[in-house]
Design goal:
This protein is an alpha/beta fold. It has helices at 5-20, 32-49, 74-78, 90-103, 141-149, 169-181, 185-195, 197-207, 211-220, 229-238, 275-282, 288-311, 324-341, 351-367, 370-379, and strands at residues 61-65, 82-87, 110-114, 126-132, 152-162, 242-247, 393-398.
Length: 403
């Protein structure tokens, strides 16, 4: 099926950015310590956070949509995967081939295919299919997911790393501001360093990426179209993919039925942190199904104000005309809902304070005064502090075997 003009246009624009400054270069070849640091991060992500031991990759037929420079995917080969690696950027593939030549084990099976995920055609099925940090940079993320899992065997696993609407909200808010005041990549780079230096510092330090790569990936990249978690789970359901795990967790910790009766099974305790779920176990007086019904009802009501607010920044592109008064209205509606219903996230997440700062930021952006905006951001206590939301969230599902 031929690609739409929108898909082609976005692919071309994103490729231009990636060929100027590739964001997936993590310098694992710079030193042994850099290599070990990145591999340990990957092991912790899959083994500890996603409950997906690296042994799952051993001898597995593995498909990676958007492998980039190979700084992440080469570890799958080291864990024994027989890899098919699809990437549309020839400059990224040049580095990927060099990294595989250097770090892949002797006798490792892998092949590279230079293609976009929408163009590639394969005549085989895979045990594990994966896409990390790719679909939200396309013009049709749902169709991209459909294409990915079309190559999944029965009994196989789909791994999706993607920025979500809520997790990416603060960073897309930053993108909106930059696009409002900037006309070029150089302008974006300069103003981002002025307004969002804390985020760039943190991302460069913890990701061990160049500052320019962080800026191009987060801000210059013309497409960041993020889905909600609900949409992702709908993609799973549409394709008969059953939810297996995620990071961060989306299953409430209050579930506490005995293992044989549980609707879900997601138990992980760490030292003293187990005291909180254990308190729920001590007081467990409602069947999990009944609790889930109440939890879902509360969540559904919350979504009626949360979705309009977060989706206002779900797809931030250059030249876009933002309805900032509507965004402020939606922000106030969400604050009112949270306050009226007594909702809380945790003591470490002052959500109402954050939302009120966002409303003030949007109002300040409307004035067009960059100096005043800069002063406002500097005095914020919650907004754009620390991680400023999230980068990628991860979701794993499996395709049930047919009996």
């Amino acid at each position: 099926m031929p690609k739409s003009k929108d898909i082609e246009s976005v692919e071309s624009a994103v490729l231009d950015v990636y060929q100027a400054v590739n964001p997936s270069t993590y310098h694992i070849d710079r030193s042994g310590e850099d290599f070990r640091f990145r591999e340990e991060m990957r092991i912790r992500l899959f083994r500890d956070n996603l409950n997906f031991p690296i042994q799952m990759f051993r001898d597995a037929k593995f498909l990676d949509f958007g492998t980039g420079t190979g700084d992440h995917s080469v570890f799958f080969s080291r864990w024994g995967a027989r890899s098919t690696l699809v990437e549309m950027n020839p400059k990224a593939l040049e580095r990927a081939r060099a990294l595989y030549e250097k770090f892949a084990p002797d006798g490792a099976e892998y092949r590279f295919i230079e293609s976009s995920l929408f163009d590639v055609e394969l005549d085989e099925q895979f045990d594990i299919v994966l896409s990390e940090g790719v679909l939200h940079h396309t013009a049709d993320k749902a169709a991209g997911f459909d294409k990915l899992v079309s190559y999944l065997k029965d009994g196989g696993y789909a791994v999706l790393g993607i920025a979500t609407t809520a997790g990416q909200f603060q960073r897309n808010l930053q993108r909106m501001i930059l696009y409002r005041f900037c006309d070029s990549a150089d302008d974006i780079e300069n103003l981002a360093e002025r307004l969002f230096k804390e985020h760039i510092d943190r991302a460069a330090k913890f990701g061990r990426r160049d500052r320019k790569a962080v800026i191009y990936d987060t801000y210059v990249n013309p497409k960041y179209d993020t889905p909600t978690v609900r949409e992702i789970l709908q993609w799973f359901d549409k394709n008969n993919i059953r939810f297996y795990s995620s990071w961060p967790r989306i299953i409430p910790i209050e579930l506490a039925d005995s293992g044989g009766n549980a609707s879900y099974e997601d138990i992980r305790t760490v030292d003293a942190l187990s005291a909180i779920p254990e308190l729920y176990w001590l007081s467990h007086n409602t069947d999990d199904r009944a609790f889930l019904a109440s939890y879902a009802a509360q969540a559904d009501t919350l979504n009626q104000t949360l979705d309009p607010f977060t989706k206002s920044m779900a797809d931030v592109t250059p030249g876009q005309d933002f309805d900032l008064p509507l965004a402020r209205h939606n922000c106030k509606a969400l604050v009112d809902h949270i306050v009226q219903n007594g909702l809380q996230v945790s003591a470490g997440h002052p959500i109402v304070d954050l939302l009120r700062e966002i409303a003030g930021l949007i109002q300040m952006t409307e004035t067009g005064d960059v100096d005043a905006l800069s002063r406002y951001i500097q005095q914020c206590k919650s907004l754009f502090r620390g991680p400023a939301g999230m980068g990628l969230s991860y979701f794993i599902g499996y395709k049930p075997e047919q009996h």
